[in-house]
Write a structure and sequence with these properties.
Two copies of one chain form a homodimer. By secondary structure, chain A is mainly alpha-helical. Chain A has helices spanning 3-10, 14-22, 40-54, 59-70, 76-110, 120-126; strands at 29-30, 36-37. The first copy, chain A, has a single domain, classed as Multidrug-efflux Transporter Regulator, Chain: A, Domain 2 (Orthogonal Bundle), CATH 1.10.1660. Chain A has six helices and two strands. Chain A starts with a helix and ends in a 5-residue tail after the last helix.
DNA sequence: ACAGAGGTTCACACTGGCGTGAACGCAGAG
DNA sequence: CTCTGCGTTCACGCCAGTGTGAACCTCTGT
């Protein structure tokens, strides 16, 4: 199974698949003509990566999760730990974004938004807070 | 005012300030010895950038906002437009993160988290959804 | 006058997660 | 046999900086 087939089956772009090989996440065989040759197991691993990345895990976390997935003697405790700290990081990120959004929303409401140059948004960003 | 002084005054790392010059966001004078020499106006601009970046605007959006800030004949309409679409983008990002968090939270609750290798989190990521 | 500490300069490499493009090889159709 | 469309490799670009290192400048103490 060559790279474009693997791309269709896994849902990842071919470029991404080659990148994952470059950084050692997967090691497909090579056919006689030099083409990458993906096994069903490789596809399974690619799908795993796609899903883990979709859940926001970093490449490094994916590496750990893959290692745990392949480790028959793993403790589910370890997986849970990775997932927990990732959830915490996501929560932190959400809080940051919500703070930004609240500030911006307030500024947008304060801005009349017409042809005049007066603009509370710019004034606030510039630190020229009057009133 | 040299770069480390400008860093203290603006709250940005010196390295970031030099980077902003490299990409054309600010153009400080040079002293006779070749050192960068920041005016009060430059500091003001750096603080503007810090605040705009803190609100999540991209460098390119910051460039636009700076241009509008310096344009005495600007329409507040234009600024509001940039801010609005940024708020939309933030909202989109928050929704994505919340979806991730919900999925992960569900999986974490399903995982017993002990020394046994059985782990619903990995099974889900791998697509081995039983039950 | 000179040593040493610390500030400043530039240039380059590196990050994550790919995207893009060149230059080439290989497979199947006509 | 040639054409087209895949595949391959390599190299560079992107964002928004951060880290490293050599060389140069400035200040302070003796």
């Amino acid at each position: 199974m060559n790279v474009s087939h693997a791309a269709r089956r896994s849902g990842l772009p071919a470029k991404t698949i080659r990148y994952y090989e470059e950084i050692g996440l997967i090691r497909p065989d090579r056919a006689a003509n030099g083409y990458r040759d993906y096994s069903a197991d490789d596809i399974h691993r690619l799908a795993f990566l796609k899903r883990a990345r979709g859940l926001g895990f970093s490449i490094d976390e994916c590496r750990q999760l893959m290692a745990l997935y392949g480790d028959r003697g793993r403790a589910s405790h370890d997986v849970r730990q990775i997932a927990r700290s990732h959830v915490d990081a996501i929560g932190e990120k959400i809080r940051e974004l919500e703070t930004m959004r609240a500030t911006l929303t307030r500024l947008i409401h304060a801005c009349h938004g017409d042809e005049r140059p007066d603009c509370p948004i710019l004034d606030d960003i510039a630190g020229d807070v009057r009133h």
